[in-house]
Amino acid sequence: MKISTRSTFLSFVALTIGISLIAIAAAGDTPTSTPAATPPPNIAEEPAGPDVTRGRALLTQYCTDCHNEKKTKGKLNLAAVGHDPARPEFAHAWRQGVGRVRQLEMPPEDAPQPTPAEREALLAWMQWNLDRIAATATPSAGRVTARRLNRLEYRNTIRDLLGVTFDPLTFDPTRDFPADGAGYGFDNIGDVLSVSPLHLEQYLFAAEQILDRAIVIEGFDGPRTRRFDAKDLRVTGIGTFAGADPAAGGLWTPRGWSADVDIRQPGDYLLRAEIVSEQANRKQAQMAYMLDGGKLEKFTLTREGKASRTERRVKLGKGPQQVAVAYLHEQNKPNFEPADGANGGFTVGYLELVGPVGIARDTAPATHKAVFVAQPAEGGKSRRQAAGEVVAAFATRAFRRPVTPAEVERYVKLFDAADIDGETFEAAVRVPLTAILVSPHFLYRIEPDRPPQTPGGDYALNGYELASRLSYFIWSSMPDAELLRVAAEGRMTDPAVLEQQARRMIADPRADVLGEAFATQWLQVRGVETLPQPDPKQFGKLGTVLKDAMRAEPVMLFQHILRTGRPLTDLLDPDYTFLNEELAKHYKLDGVKGKEMRLVKLSDARRGGVLTMAGVLAVTSHPDRTSPVRRGKWVLDAILGAPPPPPPPDVGELPPGEVSKDGKPQQVSLKQRLDQHRSAASCAACHKRMDPLGFALENYDAVGRWRDKDGKLLVDAAGLLPDGRPLNGPLELKKMMLADRDAFTACAAEKLLTFALGRGVEESDRSVIEEAAKATAGDGYRLDRLVVEIVKSRPFRYRQTPPPAAATTQPTR
Predict the structure, then answer these.
(1) In this structure, how many other beta carbons lie within 10 angstroms of the beta carbon of residue 338?
(2) Domain edges within the chain
(3) Is residue 451 within 8 Å of residue 738, measured between CB atoms?
(4) How far is it, in rounded angstroms, from Cα 215 to Cα 366?
(5) Which of 40-54, 376-390, 540-554, 577-591 has the lowest mean pLDDT?
(6) What residues contact residue 19 under an 8 Å CB cut-off, 6+ apart?
(7) DSSP per position, 532-580
(8) Do residues 209 and 171 lie in contact, with contact meaning Cβ atoms separated by under 8 Å?
(9) Where is the Cytochrome c domain (predicted)?
(10) In 3-state terms, what secondary structure has residue 277?
(11) How far lies 624's CA from each of 526, 621, 700, 703, in Å?
(12) What is the distance between the alpha carbons of residues 761 and 30, in angstroms, rounded to a whole number?
C-alpha cells in the first residue's frame, strides 16, 4: 500500500518508533544486577590470620551497640556477620568501615573510643576479611543498561555520521531537547537516561532538520516549475497582505496577488510574473515581489497597456510559505498615497516559481555524496536496488554494526511506500533515512543479551560492541571507519589491539571531548557558566568571558595531561595552567593578553591545580561567602573518592556572621560560626573530615581570588585532621594530596570506570579499580595509562547475563 502523503508517513514512523522506544526503555529498566548473597560456608572456624578472637571482641565492644538488628544505624547490621565475616555480602560494610575507622569517624565522638593499638587490631581484622572476600570472589563484569545517547553524544554522532553541525540545544529557537538525567555524577548513565513522548517528537523533528542540511532531494533532474494562473492566485487589498502597512488598507486600489508553496529543498529559486497594466499612460509604478514574512524585492513597471514579464532570483528556506507580487504606489508619489483613478490598475496573468536552480549531482555537497553511495541505472540497478544499497550503508554506520538483510528490507519497504509517481529518488530514500535516525538502534547503544560464558555469568562483547564502547568513552561519538574495520576483521577483542586503538584515539583531537564530557562532571565545574551573580559589593561582577575561562581552565589542563602523557598528579600541583587575559587579571597575574586561553607557566605556588582554580572555588561557595563545608566535601568526593553521607534532615543554619557586643556590631569568623554549628554529635563526625580540608582553601574568596582578610578579620586557614595531623593553607593541602596520590589515582579510576561503563560501581569492580590504579602508579601515574587500563578491564570488555526472570526481549526496530 502506498503512503500518499508525507504527513501520513511521519505519523506512521512516529507510531512505530514510539512503540519501539517505549519497549527498549522498559527493557533498560532492568536494574544493575547485584549478585545473589552467597550462603555462609559450612566451616567450624576462620582460617589463620590476625587475632580473630580479639577482632571479633573489638567489633562487639565498639560497633554493635549502634549497628545491630534493632538499631541499624547507616542501615548496617553487624550482628548479622555471624560466624563467617568473609561472606561476600559484607564486603561493602567492611570497605566502608575500614575507611571510617581509619579516619577516626567511627566510633563517633560521643561513644567509647578504642586505644590506638585496639584501632589497629580492629582495622587489621576488617581488612583481612575484606581481602578474603576479594580472593574468593567470582569475577563479574556487571550489567550495563541499554543507554540512550545523551545530548552531547547525539551532537557528535550526527557530526561524524552525516558531517552536519547540529546542536540539540540551539537547532530551533522554539524547541529544546529535554535535559539528560544524571546519576553517580554523570549524564551518560543508562539507568537515568529515560525516554519520553517529548523525546520522540524532538528526535523526529531533528531528523528532518538534519537531513535538510545533509542531502539534496530536488533539482538534480533540472528545476521544477510551479505555475499559478490568475484563477489560482489569491487577490487581496494590500492593507491585508502580509508585511504591508495596515494603515493603508481600504484607502486605494493597489493589490497583491499571492500563492502558497511548500518548499522541500532550500536553495535559489526564480520567481516570475506576468503583469498586465490596464492603461498605457507611460507612468512608472512601484511593484514588489513579496516573500513570506513581508520581505520586499522592489522593481518598477511602466504602464504600457500590455503584459510585462519579470523575473527575480530569490533564496527560499524549507517549509510552507507565501510568494506574491504587489502594486505598491506610483513611482512619482510618496509611498502609500492614494492612487489617482486615472492611473488605472493592474492584473496578474500568472506567477511561476522555478527551482531549485544551480544543482547538479557532480557539485552536490560532500555530505550528500557520502550518503548516496548508489544511484539508479548505475550498473543496471533499479531504483529499489540502489535504495537498498544506500540504506544498508547508512544503517550500518548509524547502528554501529552490520545490519541484517531483514532489517534492510524493512527500511526499503518504507522507500517503496514513498516512491510514488513523480517523486525523486532522493526524496523517496529520505523516508527510510529519517526512520533510521529515530530508530532505537541509532538512539540507543544496545548490547543484546547472550548466554553466559564464565562462572560469574558474564559473556564477552563482540568487536562492534567494544568499538562502540571505546568510541563513546573517549570521543563521546560513534566509531570511525578504522574501528569498524578492525571490528569486522575480528581483532577488536584482542586486548593488545584494544590498547592500540585506545592510544590512537587519545592522540586524535576528538579525544579533547573527554575533558568536556568527563572532567567537567568529575570536577563539578559544568555549572560555572550558570552560577548566580555573587554579591557585587564584595566580589564584583562575573562576566561571561570570565565564567567561560573559569570553566575552560580545568578542562584544558585535563586535555593537556591526557594528550601529552603527563602524570595524573599534574591535576593537583603543576607549575603551569591555562589562562586568558581576564582570568589572569582575576588571579593578579601579569603578561597575559587577549581572550584566547593558552598555557602559562606559574611562579606562584598558590596557583596551579584544580584545588586552587577559580571555577572549582566558585561552584563550592555561596553567592555571599565561601563555604569550607562545600569545599571540604568536594575534596573528599572529587579528589579522595570518599564522600561523606548526606546531612541529616534536621541540620540547622549557621549562626549569624555578626553579633552585638557592648552595643556595637562585631564580626564573627566563619570558623567560630561552624564550631557552634557542628557542636551536635550528629554533625561532628562528618565535619571533622570536611572542615579542615575546606578551611585550608579559605584564603580564596567566593570567586577564587586570593585574600589575606575576610572583612576585618585575618583569614584562619588552619585545622586539625581526624587523625591528629595539622593542616594549614593550600600549599600544605596540595602537599598532603600529593602524598596521598594513590588514593587520588584510585578515585580517578573509579570515576573513569563509572563514566566508561555508564553505570555505578559495584563491589565486584573494586579489585578492577585497585588494579588499574596500581598499574597507573607503576607507569608514573600517567593519565593515558589509566584510560587504557579502564579499556582493558573486565567490566569494559564483558557484560553480565541477567538471571532468567530478568531477561528481556530486545526490540527489533
Answers:
(1) 12
(2) 1-35+148-220+368-446, 52-136, 224-358, 448-507+762-802, 528-739
(3) no
(4) 9
(5) 40-54
(6) none
(7) PPP-HHHH----HHHHHHHHHHHHHHHHHHHHHT-BGGGGTS-SEEEE-
(8) yes
(9) 50-165
(10) strand
(11) 21, 8, 13, 10
(12) 16
pLDDT at 634: 97
What CA–CA distance (Å, rounded) separates 506 from 471?
Answer: 10
Strands 458-460 and 798-800: antiparallel
DSSP 441-472: HHHEE--------STTSEEE--HHHHHHHHHH
What does the pLDDT read at residue 76? 73
Would you state the cell numbers that stand for residue 616, as one nine-digit string? Answer: 572549582
What are the angstrom distances between the C-alpha of 235 and each of 288, 346, 544?
A: 15, 11, 51
Distance CA 512, CA 526 (A): 15
**What is d(CA 226, CA 265) in angstroms, rounded to the nearest whole number?**
14
Total-model pTM: 0.84
Strand 284-291 and strand 444-445: the pairing is: unpaired
Cell for 217?
Answer: 532531494
d(CA 399, CA 175): 26
Q: Are 31 and 41 in contact (CB under 8 A)?
A: no
Task: Give the count of alpha carbons within 13 A of 412, CB side only.
Answer: 19
Angle at 666 between CA 664 and CA 668, to 5 degrees: 160
* 522 vs 153: CA distance, rounded Å: 17
Q: What is the dihedral of CA 180, 183, 189, 194, to 10 degrees?
A: -50
Q: Does residue 196 surpass a pLDDT of 60?
A: yes
Tell the burial category of 594 from Cβ atoms under 10 Å away from its Cβ (0-12, 13-18, 19+).
exposed
190-199, 324-333, 363-372, 701-710: range with lowest mean pLDDT: 324-333
pLDDT value for 343:
46
Task: Tell the residue number behind the cell numbers 595531561, with chain if given.
Answer: 561
Please give the torsion angle defined by the CA atoms of residues 453, 459, 462 and 464, in that order, rounded to the nearest 10 degrees.
170
- Contact in structure between 430 and 211 (CB atoms under 8 Å): yes
Q: Is the pLDDT confidence value at 434 over 80?
A: yes
pLDDT digits (tens, 9 = 90+) for 260-312: 999 999 889 999 999 887 667 677 777 888 887 576 678 887 767 678 888 98
Q: Evaluate whether 223 touches 316 at the Cβ level (below 8 Å).
A: no
Task: Look up residue 433 and give its three cell numbers.
Answer: 533515512
Cell of 554: 580545568
Angstrom distances, CA of residue 437 to CA of 5, 17, 355, 544:
20, 10, 28, 35
What is the model's pLDDT at position 811?
46
Cell numbers 533515512: residue: 433
Residue 330, H or E segment: strand 319-330
**Residue 111's closest CA among 61, 68, 75, 154?**
61
Beta strands of 7-119 (E only): which ranges? Answer: none
The contacts of residue 791 (CB under 8 Å, 6+ apart) are 470, 473, 498, 499, 502, 756
Convert the pLDDT of each residue in 376-413 to its tens digit.
988 889 999 999 999 999 999 999 999 999 999 999 99
Joined together, the cell numbers standing for residue 116 give 590506638
Please classify residue 540 by burial: count the beta carbons closer than 10 Å to its beta carbon, then call 0-12 exposed, 13-18 middle and 19+ buried. middle
Amino acid at 751: K
Give the range among 216-230, 313-327, 503-517, 572-586 with minimum mean pLDDT: 313-327
The set of residues, in sequence order, having a beta carbon less than 8 Å from that of 712 and lying 6+ positions away, is 667
CATH of domain 224-358: 2.60.120.260
pLDDT-above-90 percentage for the chain: 53
DSSP 639: I
**424, three cell numbers:** 525523486
In 10 A of CB 657, how many CB atoms?
A: 15
